[in-house]
Amino acid sequence: MTMIKVASYNIRKAIGTDRRRSPDRIIEVLNEIGADAVALQEADRRFGKRTAVLSDFMLEHHTPYRAVPLGVRTESMGWHGNALLVRREFELIDHDLIHLPCLEPRGAVTATFRAGETVLRIVGMHLDLSGLWRRRQAASLVHWLDLPQQYPVDATVLMGDLNEWTAGRGCLIDFTRHYRLASCGRSYHATRPVAALDRILWRGGLELAESGVHHSASARRASDHLPIWANFQRI
Known about the structure:
Blueprint: E1 3-10, H1 23-33, E2 37-41, H2 56-62, E3 65-67, E4 83-87, E5 91-99, E6 107-115, E7 118-126, H3 131-146, E8 155-161, H4 171-176, E9 180-181, E10 198-204, E11 206-213, H5 217-222, E12 228-234
Parallel strand pairs: 1-2, 7-8
Antiparallel strand pairs: 1-12, 2-4, 3-4, 5-6, 6-7, 8-10, 9-10, 11-12
């Protein structure tokens, strides 16, 4: 595979801008994007058993994806709301949880898979509302990803809701010392996007071909965030 498409989407537990919970709309948007791998935020319900918003049945019968099996809770698809989806035909090589320093419950998830000839490591994250803690979390992530890995990868892609409102400030400075930033655009609020809270960063043997925010009627209703995406070509 010479081209790979990734996406990041804060699905807000499938509660749309009309305040109705509708997992079917999230599925519709995911199929519109047509990415090869997706990082989801707020993918589990917040209370009780933290039940997954998107069931395995829905993914299997209505999408080309499977959820990366993080093995944290039987009823959940993610960890601290973070989940990863990859196309079913891809070989899943490894996956892990990344513990982050936090003021409120936060974490990141990672998976390594083979897409054609490319071995890609993806990271999904949802960072803190506090700028101080976001910077600590960014430093922790960068350190963790620089540790020796069991499986060599061609490239690493970081995706998620960074909660960073100001361009070129805070945790974005920390990340861009080590990773390149895709210029996707403003993704929040879905009805009137004013902030680029959602971000995609990468390093390694990929070249960014194009990136953007997915605007559609379904996306404007399905969540308070619009999904972002990036197309990469293997160098």
